[in-house]
């Protein structure tokens, strides 16, 4: 369903890769948690699946298609088969819950008869059948996220990507959102969820893929959030990965720390003489990783602006579809 073949992504020349030597596959119908500290490469992995960014090296396959061979004009068609759920919901504030879901169908020209059938089905599936006329600000955070999930799933995508979908929610509400994603997965959709939610990962006991500094350091079925893996950042075995490569590269830590390191970690680039020198250790310059994180934030903001502009441009088309007497 999703495969990365020796994929490396570097945003700026001279900086370390955001994702490096990535070889991993997510099968059809899997539910996978991506875990790792901020800046570990989780969002970059998802953005490559959406073809928002392209690899510097290597090949990404989605549904058997080599994304490097898909022309830009076919990307919208690709994304119709990939649902995306965000931490901040990204609902259209001037449209009701019903209209937010309807909009996802209207912009691709779905007939009104189909729209009138699918939207109520989605509202019922997410438990909001009596709140379709409410605007986003009239809904709780959990209800807004349910609308966002319904919008992402209304086209019945084969893949659903969720980037911190429970990050802004209280534990009880987050549990309900997790149950909803599990239900969608049971219907055959592959779910890949990036998260820092330890309770969610421990409760679900699904496949867990941990990333550190752009590398996959753990890939286990029925995993938990924390691990004995010596190169884990989230379990406290390494300092935050925004700086750990200069202070304690993966290969040095693995050799010093007992269990055999994962295959992905073996590909970590060795530390250069410059980076290991006393002068480099005492340098006060901004780490390249921090610059990279700022670049990613800027790119995310730019992407969100592009999406908002697209919504504004497409609203006229959506209104035409809604007003069609057929």
UniProtKB/TrEMBL annotation:
It is a peripheral membrane protein. Residues 287-298 have a biased composition (Acidic residues). Homodimer. Forms a membrane-associated complex with FtsX. Belongs to the ABC transporter superfamily. Keywords: ATP-binding, Cell cycle, Cell division, Cell membrane, Membrane, Nucleotide-binding. Residues 299-326 have a biased composition (Basic and acidic residues). This is Cell division ATP-binding protein FtsE. Residues 258-326 are annotated as: Disordered. Residues 267-286 have a biased composition (Low complexity). GO terms for cellular component: plasma membrane. PROSITE patterns: ABC_TRANSPORTER_1, ABC_TRANSPORTER_2. Part of the ABC transporter FtsEX involved in cellular division. Has ATPase activity. GO terms for molecular function: ATP binding; ATP hydrolysis activity; transmembrane transporter activity. It is found in: Cell membrane.
């Amino acid at each position: 369903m999703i495969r990365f073949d020796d994929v490396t992504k570097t945003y700026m020349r001279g900086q370390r890769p955001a994702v490096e030597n990535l070889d991993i596959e997510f099968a059809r119908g899997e539910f996978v948690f991506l875990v790792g500290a901020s800046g570990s490469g989780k969002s970059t992995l998802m953005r490559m699946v959406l073809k928002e960014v392209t690899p510097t090296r290597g090949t990404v396959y989605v549904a058997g298609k080599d994304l490097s061979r898909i022309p830009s004009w076919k990307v919208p068609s690709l994304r119709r088969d990939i649902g995306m759920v965000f931490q901040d919901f990204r609902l259209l504030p001037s449209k009701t819950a019903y209209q937010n879901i309807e909009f996802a169908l209207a912009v691709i020209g779905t007939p009104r008869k189909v729209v009138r059938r699918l939207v109520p089905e989605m509202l019922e599936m997410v438990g909001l059948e009596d709140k379709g006329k409410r605007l986003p600000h009239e809904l709780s955070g959990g209800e807004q996220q349910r609308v966002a999930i319904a919008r992402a799933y209304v086209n019945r995508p084969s893949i659903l990507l969720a980037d911190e979908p429970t990050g802004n929610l209280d534990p009880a509400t987050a549990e309900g959102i997790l149950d909803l994603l599990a239900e969608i997965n049971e219907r055959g959709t592959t779910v890949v969820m990036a998260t820092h939610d330890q309770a969610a990962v421990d409760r679900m006991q699904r496949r867990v893929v941990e990333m550190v500094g752009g590398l996959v350091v753990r890939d286990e079925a029925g995993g938990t959030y924390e691990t004995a893996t010596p190169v884990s950042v989230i379990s406290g075995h390494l300092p935050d990965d925004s700086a750990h490569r200069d202070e304690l590269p993966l290969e040095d830590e693995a050799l010093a720390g007992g269990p055999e390191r994962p295959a992905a970690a073996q590909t970590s680039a060795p530390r250069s003489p410059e980076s290991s020198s006393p002068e480099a250790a005492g340098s006060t310059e901004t780490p390249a990783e921090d610059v990279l994180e700022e670049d990613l934030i800027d790119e995310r903001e730019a992407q969100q602006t592009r999406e908002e502009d697209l919504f504004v441009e497409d609203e006229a088309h959506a209104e035409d579809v809604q007003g069609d007497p057929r």
